[in-house]
């Protein structure tokens, strides 16, 4: 590893005497880190949002099974049961 002068890959500003594998000037490095953290946060938020959807999906599933059971008890088809419950009959 050696020190070298090279331009920042982000803003193109010349960086003096930096490690040859350094990609960004300190300003851009900070910016990149902030962006990375923000993205990670968004992913976490998206996951938190996904949870209620899963819950309501399983709630809808439970509702469906309840209707199927009611329909079964009444000797009706599922479609007939739903129609009856919604007052379409
Ligand atoms: Zn830069």
Helix proportion: 55-70%
Compute the CA-based radius of gyration: 29 Å
Order of helices and strands: EEHH
Main sheet attributes: strand count, strand direction, barrel closure: 2 strands, antiparallel
Q: Name every ligand kind in the structure.
A: zinc ion
Number of folding domains?
Answer: 1
Number of helical segments with 4 or more residues? 2
Let me know the number of strands. 2
Summarize the model shown:
With 89 residues, this protein is an alpha+beta fold. The model has no long low-confidence stretch (mean pLDDT 90). 64% of the residues lie in helices and 12% in strands.
List the helices and strands and how they pair.
Blueprint: E1 3-7, E2 14-19, H1 26-74, H2 78-85
Antiparallel strand pairs: 1-2
The chain binds zinc ion.
Key features of this structure:
single chain; 2 strands; rod-shaped; binds zinc ion; 89 residues; 12% strand; alpha+beta
Explain how this protein is built:
- This protein has 89 residues and is an alpha+beta fold.
- The protein has one domain (3-85).
- Helices cover 64% and strands 12% of the residues.
- The chain has two helices and two strands, in the order ββαα.
- It has helices at 26-74, 78-85, and strands spanning 3-7, 14-19.
- It has a two-stranded antiparallel ribbon with strand order 1-2.
- The radius of gyration is 29 Å and the shape is rod-shaped.
- It starts with a strand and ends with a helix.
- The structure holds zinc ion (ZN).
- Residues 8, 10-11, 13, 24-25, 27-28 line the site of zinc ion.
């Amino acid at each position: 590893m050696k020190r070298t002068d090279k331009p920042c890959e982000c803003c193109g500003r010349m960086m003096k005497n930096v490690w040859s594998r350094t990609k960004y000037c300190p300003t851009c490095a900070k910016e990149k880190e902030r962006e990375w953290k923000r993205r990670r946060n968004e992913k976490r938020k998206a996951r938190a949002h996904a949870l209620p959807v899963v819950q309501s999906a399983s709630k809808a599933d439970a509702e469906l099974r309840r209707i199927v059971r009611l329909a079964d008890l009444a000797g009706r088809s599922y479609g007939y049961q739903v129609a009856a419950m919604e007052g379409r009959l």
